[in-house]
């Protein structure tokens, strides 16, 4: 097609990194959102602040901290290498991890909001019908929060596609391994005659972003219908 | 049959409720804010009393002195809320069977068909709760609680969200439930005429005190 093999690599890598980052974030995002909304843990404020931190820091800072921690000479990175032979720094796995750290706050916000908006009396009703707390969570809370979970996942995925600063600091800019779309665009702007390719990849990024938003809108509407919210609205519109 | 004694405080509000009630329908009447819903939440196990005890038949469900507290999901009481609280993402059928499906077959006293007939809600099965009228919603909520075969049915102002005409339509259903199922009920309301119609005895609640 219109893309060169290197550009295909960058596109494929971005998709892989963003998908993995979303899958890593999802279980933690749901669990943490629930804890932050529903539990009475002491120190909740601190946890909340810590989660939000990557959003307000220069992205290079979390990337650099990841490198210190998970580099092959870092405390955790050295341990992983010695015991499991796993290397994370300067690999695509590290890119996914950097994206996950940066995108996590974006996933948590909509899920928290969704949990907050659920009428707690529905959960109480389920409890009085013999459902254990974890059954209530699986059959009532989580399905009702689904639009928020979907919105959070799409935001997380999109942020993963666009992650730049932390990725650059943690895993570098290695073609075929860590050179995702934004890094490829950045590299192209630094080589002679790279403008056309940079523009092409930029347009591709815009296309991907629009596609993600459309898909999220479509899934969100479907979820609302399944949850009965849309019935309600259509019903009122008819009246 | 049922005996309880609760002390519960929240902010400046304090609830003191002691009673022994037999089967049939016990009405609990009182103005809003008098603590009626709090009392039902204590009975259902949704709240923990500061000091108190609760016994049904031979079974001790709460005894703060001996650190006994059976959680709501093991009490096997039905609770019908003022506005139904049907699960919006489930069809009427799934709502009705939510508690029923959790019971072992031997513990099921009612089957779906019988409850549908009793409450005349068979035609609503595949609908979404959001599309039901207020009266239909309350009948489904009542059916959902019945299908859980509760040993005690707690009704928290089940008619107060309905207009007068609908109330008059639903009251006979409640009487039918009382006569045909013989499940003991506690019926909380601020409308005296409802308990006069349904209840075998009436307790009153005022400023957190049951008498």
Beta strands of chain A, count: 0
Low-confidence stretches of chain A: 232-239
Going by CATH, the homologous superfamily of chain A would be MetI-like
Strand tally of chain B is 11
CATH class of chain A: Mainly Alpha
* Level-1 CATH class name of chain B: Alpha Beta
Report the radius of gyration of chain B as a whole number of Å: 17 Å
Order of helices and strands of chain B: EEEHEEEEHHHEHEHEE
Helix content of chain A: over 70%
The string of secondary-structure elements of chain A, in order, is HHHHHHHHHHHH
Low-confidence stretches of chain B: none
| Distance from first to last alpha carbon of chain B | 18 Å
Supply the CATH architecture of chain B: 3-Layer(aba) Sandwich
Ends distance of chain A? 52 Å
Q: Largest interface, and how many residues on either side?
A: A-B, 25 and 28 residues
Structural class by helix and strand composition of chain B: alpha/beta
Compile the SSE list and pairings:
The complex is a heterodimer of chains A (239) and B (211).
Chain A: H1 5-38, H2 44-56, H3 60-70, H4 75-84, H5 92-117, H6 120-128, H7 133-144, H8 146-162, H9 165-171, H10 181-188, H11 195-227, H12 229-238
Helix pairs in contact in A: 1-5, 1-8, 2-5, 3-9, 5-8, 5-9, 6-7, 8-11, 10-11
Chain B: E1 2-10, E2 13-21, E3 25-29, H1 36-44, E4 51-56, E5 59-63, E6 68-69, E7 77-80, H2 92-100, H3 112-119, H4 134-147, E8 152-156, H5 164-181, E9 185-189, H6 192-198, E10 201-206, E11 209-210
Parallel strand pairs in B: 3-9, 3-10, 7-8, 8-9
Antiparallel strand pairs in B: 1-2, 1-4, 4-5, 5-6, 10-11
């Amino acid at each position: 097609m219109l893309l060169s093999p290197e550009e295909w690599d960058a596109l494929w890598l971005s998709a892989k990194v963003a998908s993995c980052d979303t899958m890593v974030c999802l279980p933690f995002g749901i669990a943490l959102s629930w804890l932050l909304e529903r539990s009475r843990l002491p120190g909740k404020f601190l946890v909340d602040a810590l989660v939000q931190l990557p959003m307000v820091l220069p992205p290079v800072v979390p990337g650099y901290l990841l490198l210190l921690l998970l580099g092959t000479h870092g405390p955790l990175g050295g341990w992983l290498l010695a015991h499991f032979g796993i290397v994370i720094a300067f690999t695509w796995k590290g890119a996914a991890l950097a994206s996950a750290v940066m995108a996590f706050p974006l996933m948590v916000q909509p899920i928290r909001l969704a949990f907050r908006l659920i009428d707690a009396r529905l959960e109480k009703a389920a409890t009085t019908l013999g459902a254990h707390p974890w059954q209530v969570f699986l059959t009532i809370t989580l399905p009702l929060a689904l639009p928020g979970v979907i919105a959070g996942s799409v935001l997380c995925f999109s942020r993963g596609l666009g992650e730049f600063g932390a990725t650059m600091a943690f895993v570098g800019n290695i073609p075929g391994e860590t050179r995702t779309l934004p890094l490829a665009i950045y590299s192209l702007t630094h080589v002679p005659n790279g403008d056309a390719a940079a523009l092409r990849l930029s347009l591709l990024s815009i296309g991907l972003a629009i596609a993600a938003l459309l898909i999220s809108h479509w899934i969100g509407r479907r979820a609302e219908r399944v949850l009965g919210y849309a019935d309600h609205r259509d019903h009122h519109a008819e009246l | 049959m049922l005996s309880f004694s609760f002390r519960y405080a929240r902010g400046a509000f304090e609830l003191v409720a002691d009673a022994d009630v037999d089967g049939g329908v016990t009405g609990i009447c009182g103005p809003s804010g008098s603590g009626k819903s709090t009392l039902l939440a204590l009975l259902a196990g949704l709240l923990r009393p500061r000091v108190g005890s609760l016994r049904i038949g031979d079974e001790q469900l709460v005894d703060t002195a001996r650190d006994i507290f059976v959680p709501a999901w093991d009490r096997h009481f039905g609770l019908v809320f003022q506005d139904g609280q049907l699960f919006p993402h489930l069809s009427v059928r799934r709502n009705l069977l939510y508690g029923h499906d959790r019971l072992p077959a031997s513990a099921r006293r009612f089957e779906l068909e019988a409850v549908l007939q009793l409450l005349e809600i068979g035609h609503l099965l595949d609908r979404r709760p959001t599309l039901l009228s207020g009266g239909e919603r309350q009948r489904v909520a009542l059916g959902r609680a019945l299908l859980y075969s509760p040993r005690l049915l707690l009704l928290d102002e089940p008619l107060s969200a309905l207009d007068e005409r609908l109330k008059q339509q639903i009251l006979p259903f409640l009487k039918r439930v009382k006569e045909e199922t013989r499940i003991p009920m506690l019926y909380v309301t601020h409308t005296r005429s409802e308990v006069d119609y349904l209840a075998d005895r009436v307790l009153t609640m005022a400023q957190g005190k049951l008498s």
